[in-house]
Structure to design on (173 residues):
């Protein structure tokens, strides 16, 4: 077994850049990756990783996840959810719905589900072979970035979060 020290918090943007607004999480991760964050905060463009993201979910005690959702709300609506179980995630998690839900259910079964904060941004449709965001979604990107940054800073500085550096033992690393 290997003992490894991991950072505290992962900001994970998911989505498909080739499907317009569906890639909002990836667009945000790319924009945030060049900005300074408190020590222990990592930013990752998770793309459409599905099960390939499992190592990231198990390595961090807390994950801020950003994704698009087809929920019937006006495009650009931002909501923060704190689901504890995979069944509490919105039904429309876009094109990677099955992979992400399966990943989260697997983490639950293994007892390795981190604390997840999910920012969802409402979109109207999947735009195949379109790189870029609609005007409505692009307009909320500064607010989304600020809300993600604010939550990250709050979590790493709060005693309630207790996301200090931790050593974890993983037999498969």
């Amino acid at each position: 077994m290997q003992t490894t020290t991991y950072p505290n918090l992962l900001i994970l943007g998911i989505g498909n850049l080739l499907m317009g607004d569906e890639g909002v999480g990836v667009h945000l991760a790319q924009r945030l990756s060049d900005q300074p964050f408190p020590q222990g905060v990592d930013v990752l463009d998770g793309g459409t990783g599905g099960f390939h993201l499992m190592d990231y979910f198990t390595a961090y005690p807390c994950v801020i996840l950003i994704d698009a959702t087809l929920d019937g709300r006006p495009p650009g609506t931002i909501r923060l959810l704190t689901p504890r179980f995979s069944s509490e995630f919105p039904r429309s998690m876009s094109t990677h719905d099955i992979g992400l839900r399966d990943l989260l259910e697997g983490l639950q079964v293994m007892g390795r589900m981190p604390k997840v904060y999910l920012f969802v941004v409402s979109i109207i449709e999947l735009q195949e072979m379109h790189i870029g965001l609609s005007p409505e979604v692009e307009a909320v990107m500064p607010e989304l970035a600020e809300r993600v940054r604010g939550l990250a800073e709050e979590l790493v500085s709060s005693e309630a979060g207790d996301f200090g550096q931790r050593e974890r033992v993983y037999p498969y690393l």
Observations:
- The chain is about 30% helix and 25% strand.
- The helical segments are 24-32, 54-59, 97-110, 135-157.
- The longest strand covers residues 62-69.
